[in-house]
Amino acid sequence: MSGVFDLRQRRVLVTGGGGFLGGHLLEALRRRGVPEASILAPSRREADLLRLEDSLAACEGRDVIFHLAARVGGIAFNLREPARILYENAVMSAHVIEAARRCGAGRFVAVGSVCAYPVSPPVPTREDHLYEGKPEASNLAYGQAKRLLHTAVEAYRAQHGMSAIYVLPANLYGPGDHFDPEDAHVIPALVRRFVDAAGAGAPSVAVWGDGRSTREFLYAADCAEAIVRAAELYDDGSPLNLGSGREISIRDLAGLIAKLAGFEGRIAWETSRPSGQRRRCYDTSRSVALLGPYATTSLEDGLAETIRWYRDRVAPEEPRVR
User: Fold this and answer.
1) Domain 7-173+217-242 in CATH: superfamily?
2) Does the domain at residues 186-214+247-280+297-313 carry the CATH identifier 3.90.25.10?
3) For residue range 16-46, what is the model confidence (pLDDT) as tens digits?
4) Which residue numbers are catalytic?
5) Element of type H or E holding 146
6) CA 60: distance to chain centroid?
7) What is the DSSP string of 30-50?
8) Strand partners, 108
9) I need a labelling partner for 311 at 20 to 30 A (CA). Which of 177, 187, 237, 246 fits?
């Protein structure tokens, strides 16, 4: 696609707009100058994307569709309900992209997941490594569903000429994340444990795994900006990595969060618990070349802001005394 696809002149649908990344994407669209009246972000109650008729109704009259809606959780949830994860993500994606086609949307932006990558890809991981093996076992159902979403993008481009793209964000974190103790991803789970433990004066905090696995994290607001830029500038069926390019071990991450949270106790590593995929870090050279630098928030600053947000809005009002 030549030139810039001007989002300010479009009627936009954001599925999953009530979610963590969705909230940041809505803010990024507003900053870009898309009028509030031109943005539709229905709740699950307003549009159940497991129903094709609801997907069609949501897509009707929309020029641009950002598909973020997903059934997602942490390792515990992935292990507990893999069939639900596979079914709901596959069906929602199939319904939304078909509805977008029928309604004549001019742009379809599909948001994938780092979980779609194979269990042991080369590091840093390029987009052409996506299908070189199965996803990691604890993320298998979710990872395969997100691969299917990329297949849908390629298929609809090939058969219908749809201007559809597929972006692959790294692990996200930031204000507005989900801090449920059972189903949270690694950063919000650690933030909750260490902030709560610091407030309670707890002597130790238990963390799953051995701490040797590594991950790459992208601040959610930076990811939202990159997605908006991709909608404006990118028109190709190949996946596009979105990440920070920084790899950190879970052990170092836990130590950093503990320090920022003011926790002075001991970290107890539960080595009998799963550690997940051993290494994750993207090669982001393509996205930076195409979109310009977008990962502008350092991990330290992003974690500090996330901790501040949790303390202000989620943490218990009164310290729990042991």
Assistant:
1) NAD(P)-binding Rossmann-like Domain (3.40.50.720)
2) yes
3) 999 999 999 999 999 999 999 999 999 999 9
4) 142
5) helix 140-160
6) 26
7) HHHT--GGGEE---TTT--TT
8) 65, 164
9) 246
